[in-house]
Structures are given as C-alpha cells and as structure tokens.
Request: fold
Amino acid sequence: MTEALLAQRPIVMGILNVTVDSFSDGGAFLEFSAALAHAREMVASGADIIDVGGESTRPGAERVPVEVEQQRVLPIIRELAAEGVALSIDTLNASTAAEAVRAGARFINDVSGALADADMARVAAESGATYIAGHWRGTSATMNEFANYDSVVVDVRNELRLRVDALHAAGVPRERIVLDPGLGFAKNAEHNWELLAQLSTLVGDGFPILIGASRKRFIGALLPTEANMVERDVPSAVVAALAVNAGAWGVRVHDVRMTKLALAAQQKWENAR
Ligand code: PMM
Reply:
C-alpha cells in the first residue's frame, strides 16, 4: 500500500496539527473545514503525505484524552482518504493508530518508536501500515532531562536499532519501517545539528529516513528573538534540502510550497552532477 511512496525520493510530508484546545459545537465545523482546507492546500502545493496529529508532543506538552485525540483526527482522515490523499497518523496511542488506519491512514508516525504505548508494536504489525519510528527518551514532560549522550549519533543509531528489533519481533516487516532521529526529542540544538551533519551514517543502515526539523526551536535560534514562526520556514527549507542531499527519504514540514522549491533546486544540483 505504501510501496510506491517508499520507493519515491524525496517525499514531502505536510504537517496538519489539529491540536486546538476546545472543540465547542460552534467551532467544530469551522476547525474541521479549516483543517481540511489547509490539508488540501498542502496537497495542491505538492505534499506527498499529510501527517495528521491530534496531540502535541512538544517538550512540556500535556497529554490529551485519547477520545479527544480521535475526535480531532478521525473525521479529517476519513475525508482526506476519500479524496485519495496519502495520510499518516501522528500519535503515541495504539488505539488511535488502529482507528486511523481503519479510517484510511497508511502510515503510523509515532515519535516514541513504540515506547509510549505497549500495544503500539502489535497494532503496527496487525494494521499493515508502514510504521515511522522516532527516537525519543523519556516523555514530553521529562525528555529534556534525558538529553545526555556519549555520542548522540552512535547512541541514537543504537537505540533506533533496538526499536527496529522490538518492532520486528512484534511482526512488523523491515520493509514497513521508516526511522526518524527525532530532532528536538531529548536533544538540544547541538545534538540536532550533529545528527543532521552525520545523517549519512543513519542512511547507511538502509532504512528510509524521515527528518522533522521544520520550525523547531533550534531553527528558531538562528533568527532574532522577535522573529515569528513563519520566518523559520526559510532555514527549515534549507535544512530539508540538505537532509535530502544527505540521503533522507523524506522531510516533515509546515511550509510545503517553500520546501518543494528548495528540493527542486537540490534536485537540479543533483541531476547536473
Ligand atoms: N516532530 C513533532 C511531531 N511529530 N514526527 C516525526 N516523524 N518527526 C518529528 O520530528 C516530529 C514528529 C513535533 O513538531 P510539531 O509540534 O511542529 O509538529
């Protein structure tokens, strides 16, 4: 089901965070239609996959009840799947992953690499979806305490290998695993840059690699303090192009249009070599 997308390079995953705090009756349809409109705009701009998330995993973020998470994401997934859009569900929860795949998602994007929910590896195996395993330590609340590495590249690589072993043991075939070093998850800015600079090491292990640098704090640190979020899109697009140049399979981004332009330049450069 995802073979064609896994064979394609590079892919652009557009971020659809449906993480509003209240879904009041009046606001629900507005939020729903606004989310759909944004997803359609990203598809029109060339997004290959739309990544739908109903719970923020940022450092310090509070957990959302699983019913609320599902109310946010499932109607959007159903609608976009019916329109033929390739979708991934960004969740830590196995039950949300299972429901999302039933609703039409083809990828399960779990930043915890199946550490947050003991049932996730089984769901990943049984669902038939392609599973994106992120590297993380701790939880959203505690991850900053775990940002200690002997060598961040060696440690992340080894810990991702352990996740692959666990997924494989649960029945997820290697061909359905994508790895993500989890920039910002139990990592400071230097860790993130080091992982990016050594990306070819991770790529060398043979799994498709997804990179999520877009608008993250370490990107924001390049800008003056008064800069707004949207100003992070230029350095995010540069990092996306460099990541693809280093062999990444895909990039998870907010500004699809700008990323596609950066990747078009990268592809021209590559093709002319
Ligand atoms: N980062 C966030 C959420 N989901 N998924 C993957 N695979 N990789 C990431 O780096 C990642 C993710 C947090 O960023 P956001 O709050 O801007 O979505």
Q: What stands out?
A: Confidence is low (pLDDT under 50) at residues 22-27. The first strand starts at residue 11 and ends at 17.
